[in-house]
Amino acid sequence: MSKRDDLIVKYADDLKNKIGVTPDMDFLRKVTIGCGPSIYNRDSSTVSGTDASELATVKNNFLIKKLGLSDGPALDAGIAKVMDQYGQSERNKYRAVVYYLLAKHFNKESVYN
Length: 113
Hints:
Strand content: under 5%
CATH class: Mainly Alpha
Radius of gyration: 13 Å
Structural class: mainly alpha
Strand order of the largest sheet: 1-2
CATH topology: Recoverin, domain 1
Number of helices: 5
Low-confidence stretches: none
CATH architecture: Orthogonal Bundle
CATH superfamily: Jann4075-like
């Protein structure tokens, strides 16, 4: 298995065991590939749920630029919901898992087709 495949297995495990969601493996693979090389860097592979600037980056770079959503309170509410879903006490919130959950939350799976 490649390093990316190993990471996808790890992300699927987080979705199943920490969040209680059965992952759509094809979609998870597409989201992971969409994250690019950031998944291999220890710092950029995770999202801090308490860092306002990092959450703003998720909102601007992923939700607005990648998914094409309009800025508004619904985006902040979606991010907050995903952070709660992942668990506030969970230190390692993997970027690919957060993006997967956000894309599902906003019904934007079509962006990856």
